[in-house]
């Protein structure tokens, strides 16, 4: 927890606590096609890989900023409650599934099916 505005450590311990920003991160465990999301232009999406490697999506409800990376890592920031985090995740879950990169096994390289097999 970061406490700002206190002049002394004891003041920080007794200060009124107000949550300003909750940051959450997770790993989808699969890569994401960011360019696909950017082309689909869902709401307030910004993706400029020359400037920043992540796609930035500004949700209006809940008011949360989502940073998605091609690796499958996702950061949610700007939330004021756990419910905001849950709502943001529910909002982006369909995108994560729709734009996931699926790695298929190469076809035609199985034993007995390649070139020169009898």
UniProtKB/TrEMBL annotation:
Keyword Repeat in record: no
A single GO BP: DNA-templated transcription initiation
InterPro entries documented for this protein: TBP, TBP_CS, TBP_dom_sf
GO terms assigned for molecular function: DNA binding
SUPFAM superfamilies hit by this protein: TATA-box binding protein-like
Keywords: DNA-binding, Transcription
Family membership noted in the UniProt record: Belongs to the TBP family.
Protein name per its UniProtKB record: Together with the TAF protein TBP belongs to the TFIID complex
């Amino acid at each position: 927890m970061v406490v700002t505005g206190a002049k002394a450590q004891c003041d920080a311990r007794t200060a009124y606590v107000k949550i300003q920003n909750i940051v959450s991160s997770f790993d989808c465990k699969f890569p994401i096609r960011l360019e696909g999301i950017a082309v689909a232009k869902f709401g307030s999406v910004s993706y400029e890989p020359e400037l920043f490697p992540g796609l930035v999506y500004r949700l209006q409800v809940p008011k949360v900023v989502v940073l998605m990376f091609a690796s499958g890592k996702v950061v949610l920031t700007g939330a004021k409650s756990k419910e905001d985090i849950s709502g943001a995740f529910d909002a982006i879950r369909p995108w994560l599934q729709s734009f996931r990169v699926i790695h298929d096994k190469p076809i035609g390289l199985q034993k007995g099916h390649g070139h020169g097999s009898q």
